[in-house]
Amino acid sequence: MTLQEFNQLPLPARVQQLHDCCHCHWWAETLAQDAPFNSLQSLLEQAVNLFNQANESQILEAFKGHAKIGDIELLRSKFAGKATAEQGQVMQASEDTIKALWQLNQDYEAKNGFIFIVCATGKSAEEMLVILESRIANSRDCELKNGAQEQNKITQIRLTQLIEN
C-alpha cells in the first residue's frame, strides 16, 4: 500500500497494520494516531522514537510476536509466512547449528525471561548463533535493551515492506 493509502485507513485498520509490524498494542495505537505521515522516513523515525519510549512490559509484548530463532516446527506453523521469510536461512542450516540455536535460545530464555531477539534478515544461522553466543552472558537489563534495538530494526524492515514508495 502507498503511504497515502495507509494515512487514509480508518484508525482501527491503521492500528492493525502497525500491530502486524510490531506486536505492541500501545505502540501500534499511539503511532496510528500520529497519522497522517508526510513521508515514509517520518513514519520510520516516529516508529523508532515511540518504541524507544516503551516500558518493559510493552517491549516484552512486542517480543512475544516472534518465533524463537531455530524453532523449525513453529516456523512451519503459526509464524510460517513472515517468520520463514525473516528466518529463511535458519531452515537451510545444518541440524547441529539448529540444535545449538535452539538449546542456547532455551538457556537465554530461562536466564532472561524472554526469547533471544535478533534482526535475522540477511544473517545465516551460523551468524545468529555467534551473536547469541556473544550475548548470552549479558545481564537481563542489557539484553532487554539489545532486544529492543533489534525489535526496532525488524519493525523498520516490516514498515518499509508495508509502505510502497
UniProtKB/TrEMBL annotation:
Protein EC: 4.1.1.97
Record bears the keyword Lyase: yes
Catalytic activity: 5-hydroxy-2-oxo-4-ureido-2,5-dihydro-1H-imidazole-5-carboxylate + H(+) = (S)-allantoin + CO2
Pfam families the UniProt entry points to: OHCU_decarbox
GO MF terms, alphabetically ordered: 2-oxo-4-hydroxy-4-carboxy-5-ureidoimidazoline decarboxylase activity
Entries under SUPFAM superfamilies matching the protein: UraD-Like
Protein name: 2-oxo-4-hydroxy-4-carboxy-5-ureidoimidazoline decarboxylase
Keyword Lyase: yes
Pathway linked to the protein: Purine metabolism; urate degradation; (S)-allantoin from urate: step 3/3
Domain Oxo-4-hydroxy-4-carboxy-5-ureidoimidazoline decarboxylase: 7-159
Transmembrane segments: none
Protein origin, superkingdom: Bacteria
Enzyme class, first EC level, given as a word: lyase
PANTHER family linked to this entry: 2-OXO-4-HYDROXY-4-CARBOXY-5-UREIDOIMIDAZOLINE DECARBOXYLASE-RELATED
Keyword list, A-Z: Decarboxylase, Lyase, Purine metabolism
InterPro entries: OHCU_decarboxylase, OHCU_decarboxylase-2, OHCU_decarboxylase_sf
